[in-house]
């Protein structure tokens, strides 16, 4: 089979590796890919935003399956354009992707279908939002209504902080036509839950816990994610049953009733509260960096279950996992997620990967004069497996010591909630 992967991050590197290891013979292409993905795929000098060239390449090369990694390409309708040419795509349609591209769309689905979620109000004008803010207590959550690469959520401890966040969103930082929601702050423990959906049937995957904040102890600004681990103790079997029954299944059913069936991976960001799990938000693609940890534990054939999803054949699909734990630590450039330095030379990855339980996924790197350069905000994802969280954690941090670049920054407390 000929497979095309869209994206250039750690998530796409992890997907490429799993597809490469599939029992189904395949040839992988990536647009645009990265130096890590080059180990498994032919990387093409085509912009992931150039839908016309992606479609033309797929047609000319008889691509059997396109896997779209990043949300922006899905939300901009790449899946729909490829489908017009009868090319199979692992990603939802543009209209179904509103579950991520519009937080108010998701909130309306939740409210109409009794899906537990935080109370909210949507605003398109700064002054009205500020006026409403004065009626509320703190902490409070301010969210841009559209896509923001994981950086459009502000958990505000004071009215001043909330007011500044509202002004920042309405300054046009995230959108030329900004809107936001002001949301009740939920107390509990966050978790990420993933399920495959083939339009009708649902196959739950495995849960993980991400670390969004930049600093230890879950402090500092939100980022795209500084690390993750799986499985997470907070997602007990009882909680998972509640998530499926009260959140995932009603959402998939509602999407079908609206004639906007969902196909692909559905990623629920959850808050596990005293009352049970509540929906924070949906993402319409695999998480980053959760995917890097998750796929290291996957025993089933990723390509096979993706094809079952696309072909509407999930009903009898079984997904099996290794009885281990997995942990990812993000190595970022100092200054991320704001103004960060780039262009440091990276060394030590081969040394780190001498341990068979370690895999380093590339997130923001490039090759220059045969040297690996730290070119993005998040640079590498050091992923380790072990028989326990403690073992995986020790392996990951030991590997990190072997990887050198001048501007390296990372959190030293990934999985702190799961440690004994």
List the helices and strands and how they pair.
Layout: E1 2-7, H1 10-20, E2 27-32, E3 42-43, H2 51-60, E4 65-68, H3 71-75, H4 78-83, E5 88-90, H5 98-101, H6 103-112, E6 120-123, H7 126-133, E7 140-144, E8 153-156, H8 159-170, E9 180-184, E10 189-198, E11 202-210, E12 213-215, E13 219-222, E14 227-230, H9 237-257, E15 263-273, E16 276-283, H10 290-295, H11 302-310, E17 325-333, E18 344-346, H12 349-352, E19 358-362, E20 365-368, E21 371-374, E22 378-386, H13 389-402, E23 408-409
Parallel strand pairs: 1-2, 1-4, 2-3, 4-5
Antiparallel strand pairs: 6-9, 7-8, 7-9, 10-11, 10-15, 11-14, 12-13, 14-17, 15-16, 17-22, 17-23, 18-21, 19-22, 20-21
